[in-house]
Amino acid sequence: MRRWLTLFLMVLAGPVFAQTSPTLTMDVEETKTVPGQQLSLRITVLVPTYMPSPPIWPAYEAPNLMVRLPERATNPVSERVNGETWAGISRRYQISPMIPGTFLLPEAEVIVTWADPETNEPRKTTLRTEPITLTGVVPEGAEGLDPFIAGTNVTLEQTITGDPATMVAGDSVVRSVTATIEGTSPMFLPALLPPVDVPGLRAYADEPVLEIRDNRGDLSGTRTERVTLVAEGGGAGQVMGLTLDWLNLDTGKIETASADGFTVQVQGPSAVPAEPVNWRAHAVVAVLGLICLALLVLLVQTLWPRLRQWQADRRMAYLASEAYAWRQLRSALHARDLSVLHTALELWAARLPGADARRDLEVTEALLQIGAAAYGTGKATPEAGWAALTQALPRARRNGQVDPQKAAALPDLNG
User: Fold this and answer.
1) Residues 113, 51: contact at Cβ < 8 Å?
2) Among 57, 56, 51, which Cα is nearest to 78's?
3) What's the start-to-end Cα distance of the chain, in Å?
4) Residues contacting residue 161 through CB under 8 Å, at least 6 positions apart
5) What is the tens place of the pLDDT at every residue in 317-328?
6) 297: how many CB neighbours lie within 10 A of its CB?
């Protein structure tokens, strides 16, 4: 009799014990991918009533992981919980390993404001996500790619303005190379133009220009590099071509994009007088070079495994350095893409010693100008903000550590 009474009371009390607190779920389709490719993480928050204000989502940061929000990343949802319809919001993150290896996406907080089911008053609840381990994997056969580039299509387009074969002192030739990549961000493309070493010629290179395109989460874009070759005196030589090896994700094969080199001929007297050739000295150097080459071959055969490991460790250290993050930030800055800029700025700020460079007063004001022009209702243009940010970031980097008295809280750009 007591047992049946207990069961009867539990049935009556069932609605009382029904869950009434917000819930959080995480959905990860895959945890392994090729560096540069995207993994999808979806976080869904549900409440039994409604949310008077949107949740405060985590801004994920992790070394060597590029985290971005795709277009329409946040959407309303509804689900049945304990026989009732709960309202909610989901947010999708796209996460790309920047290099091969294993990385930890740390746990984070999601602050939810929701209406109390009894009083209808707003309540705040802090939910926590689970840490996730992600892996960047190099497919078999692509281990020799350095740098590692993977996509669905990579092309190189070159234009030469001027005639390099009939130059005289004072003439100039402009070489422009554009790399187009599909299937990943152009931020993963390396430097394109090789150095120019031609007598009587001086090279003046422009800053690389990145253009990033996002078609419903499918990234692509271009990297353009431009160099002006100015003739200073007579001379001749060869400007090297360039090749870019990459992994075709559709076929799994290594392919090569290339741009041809060209010959330069500058008429007139040499800018630097040529010295007479000492053939005996050249012969001695050649013999010594052959001996050194033979010794080097023996040394490499002996130390090759250690050399490969040292090379991999050195590259990993560079990719994890502040200098590399600064280079990515400069590229994002020239691309004038606010979402890419924030990702690169967070990565660089995390590696810069001292205080958070994003809280520097000049950097903060520049970001506010850009955000106001991009998301505000006024007619302000973002050019002034971009120009101010271009000047403020190098100063913040030179300081090494931002003066705490100049630090300012970084407001929400959407505010």
Assistant:
1) yes
2) 51
3) 63
4) 173, 174, 175, 176
5) 888 888 888 888
6) 10
